[in-house]
Amino acid sequence: MDAYFTAGYNSLQDSLTEGGFQLLLSKVVSKIGCGHTVVRPSKAAARRQGALQFPVVMKLWPDTAVVVFNAASKDSLIKRGTVIHSIDGRPIKSITDTLFQFLSTDGYNQTHKYQTLSNGFSFGRMYLNVFGVKTAYRFTYLDSFGNRRTVSLPLLGSVADSSRKAAPRQKQKKPSKKARLQEMRSLRIDAAAGAAYMTLHTFQKRHRLQRFFRQSFKTLQQKHTKHLVIDLRSNGGGSVSASTLLTRYTINHPFVLADSLYAVNRSWQGRRHQTERLNNWLFLQLMAHRGKNGHFHLRYFERKKFEPKKKNHFNGNIYLLTGGNTFSAASLFAGALKGQSNVTIVGEETGGAAYGNNAWLLPDLVLPNTRLRIKLPQFRMVVNKDLPKGFGVQPDVFIPPSVQAIREGRDYKMEAAKSLIQQRN
Question: CA nearest 181: which of 156, 145, 205?
Fold first, then answer.
């Protein structure tokens, strides 16, 4: 790491824009191999990011890029499901290899990097930051006969796009609190199949998950549900207490949250630039205790054995849908259930590591001049020291992305889970 930081420092030969400096720091920070340690733009720059929009949204996986949405033109030959071969003469493999240098992930995990680029307009923003802003971009793609064609699409929001008349914005009705909660976590019962489908987009506390889990598992018990599908594909984590509670409703044996959970020290010279300084300092002083190795451990979570819930515990077949966005606390949950006889993990490797991660306290380090924000974890958490380092929780049934699924708008992972349910009924 000293070599990477030295190389980054030595590359500062001239003044940089905030975006350029963010890229430089991201390239250095990515070498740490921690998906929680990321460099983000200042709040002012973040508000400006939506001004320019790359013409397409794509789903990416190794050596493949497929259009999900063409924002530039509805009449273009580049439609949903079109395979992109290159952009401005750069092969997709070359582009992703370059962009990966600026993306943080847990260990060697590539699934998380591909998924990060596939999320919304992330690829477009990174492409503009790394390769530069132009009025238009040349896309080489495969047509329906498998022939390579090239088309130019404009950058939206640019001078070249100014002739487009923007549609008047309609005032949208703000969704109710109940609707917002339903969007983040929901339960659907299929009585005919004896199955239930739980969608969890988050483990954040503010979404009333404790109450949701209590009511959901009570309903499953009352309905005599035999199969439970839990969709974690968009779950980036949140509260460990929430993921632990869900684990207690589904695991069949006592478990410890982590083999070790510690901070290297309680204070450091850059702490004055952190957000939530007082809360973090109090937590470290009151909750973390020095161990024999000199580190400050959260002993409660290293020693506490959590028992499975007795009331409304789910004992049927469980199917976890996972992917590159399954991160942090969501990976902890998937890892805790991995290998259990009634649990099948369907999809792709989780974005979060199975061995452990760096999290718990996640303040921002705000750089004093640029106001760039660096998410800086305070604790190192080793979930299971016997697992290989650097990889996510592996699926039992691997369902990779496919061009056909995108073209047809089909959810092959969910279809695989439903097929397993049919086989077991």
Answer: 205
* pTM, 2 dp: 0.92
**What are the tens digits of pLDDT across the range 415-424?**
999 999 999 9
Beta-carbon neighbour count of residue 300 at 10 Å?
11
Q: What is the pLDDT of residue 288?
A: 93
Given a contact cutoff of 8 angstroms between Cβ atoms, the answer to whether 284 and 261 are in contact is: no
- Write b or e for each residue in 45-69: b if 16 or more Cβ atoms lie within 10 A of its Cβ, otherwise e: beeeeeebbbbbbbbbbeebbbbbe
- In this predicted structure, the answer to whether residue 160 has a pLDDT above a threshold of 50 is no
How far is Cα 372 from Cα 41, in angstroms, rounded to an integer? Answer: 5
Distances (CA, A) of 71 to 48, 204, 217, 294: 19, 32, 42, 54
C-beta neighbour count of 9 within 10 angstroms? 10
- pLDDT value of position 281: 87
Residue with tokens 């239930």: 196
First to last CA, the chain: 53
pLDDT band for position 61 (50/70/90)?
A: very high
pLDDT, one tens digit per residue, over 275-306 is: 888 888 899 999 999 999 999 999 999 999 99
Instruction: Give the pair of three-digit tokens for residue 327.
Output: 């991160």
